[in-house]
Structures are given as structure tokens and as C-alpha cells.
Backbone:
């Protein structure tokens, strides 16, 4: 069994950038140190044999996950007995070349910007301001609430209700 490089518990993932096998707790401590180390891609180790699995991820905290390698899925038949041919080497090298392009596009930083204002929203604002100006020129009606006791008392109730 592979042990965690820091605390010697059972290792659950491998960080290629750090070249270290880590348990969940130590991975969390190491990869939350700053935003640069949080970008390290880590590969989950097989729960049964601790060989690397196809699962990989990055980020400050990767939640505990159980993964099994392809050899263990096949019942251990392929465990360590696979022979590498020249065709396999070529396929792996071509995959690596393609993966480099994908990594660059995933890590692009895009500045946050507000969308440009639309012409229709600008024209509606102009219409609103001219509408408001024309309304202000009209005479307004005012009501004197103090003349009648009923209206005055209801106004007091309203005021006290609004202040509560």
C-alpha cells in the first residue's frame, strides 16, 4: 500500500506537479495553500490496488471519492500484465500533444466586463425622461386632510402604522 508522503496514512491521490502521493487531509492542506497550487491536477489512486485511475481533477478541495482502475474492474486479470507495443507508444504520444492544446484553453483568464448598452434601452430612457418632464408641467391636485376629523384620524393611523 502506498502511504501519504506527509502523514503516512493510506494515499488516495497522486499529484504529478508535487510528485507526491497524498491522503485526503494532506491534499486539502497542500492544495489550499494558494491559488497556484490549487491548479495542480491530481490523479485519484485505485481504491483496491492504488495504481493511477483515469479520474483526475484540480481545485482547492477535492471531495473524497472512490475510484477503481481498469485492471481491477476487469477482475484483476490485466493487473500489471499488459505489454506495451510500438503502436501503444505512438497513441500515447499523440494524445499528449492533443492534451497540451486543451490545457491552454481551460486556463484562460477572461476579464469581467459589462455588456454594451443596447440602442433600444437608450431610446426608452430618453422617452421616459421626456415623459417625466411633461408630467411635471401639469397641475397637481392636493388634498387637505386636516379639514375633516375622519380623514385626519385615518391619516394619523396610517402614519403610526408606517412607523411601527
Residues:
Amino acid at each position: 500500500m502506498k502511504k501519504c508522503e506527509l502523514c503516512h496514512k493510506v494515499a488516495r491521490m497522486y499529484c504529478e506537479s508535487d510528485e507526491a502521493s497524498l491522503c485526503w487531509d494532506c491534499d486539502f492542506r497542500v492544495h489550499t495553500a494558494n491559488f497556484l497550487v490549487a491548479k495542480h491536477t491530481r490523479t485519484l489512486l485505485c481504491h483496491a490496488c492504488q495504481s493511477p485511475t483515469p479520474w483526475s481533477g484540480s481545485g482547492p478541495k477535492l471531495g473524497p471519492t472512490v475510484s477503481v482502475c481498469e485492471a481491477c474492474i476487469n477482475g484483476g486479470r490485466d493487473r500489471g500484465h499488459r505489454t506495451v507495443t510500438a503502436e501503444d507508444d505512438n497513441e500515447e504520444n499523440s494524445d499528449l500533444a492533443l492534451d497540451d492544446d486543451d490545457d491552454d484553453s481551460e486556463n484562460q483568464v477572461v476579464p469581467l466586463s459589462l455588456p454594451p448598452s443596447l440602442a433600444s434601452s437608450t431610446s426608452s430612457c430618453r422617452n421616459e425622461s421626456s415623459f417625466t418632464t411633461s408630467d411635471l408641467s401639469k397641475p397637481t391636485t392636493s388634498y387637505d386632510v386636516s379639514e375633516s376629523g375622519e380623514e385626519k384620524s385615518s391619516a394619523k393611523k396610517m402614519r403610526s402604522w408606517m412607523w411601527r
Remarks:
- The radius of gyration is 34 Å.
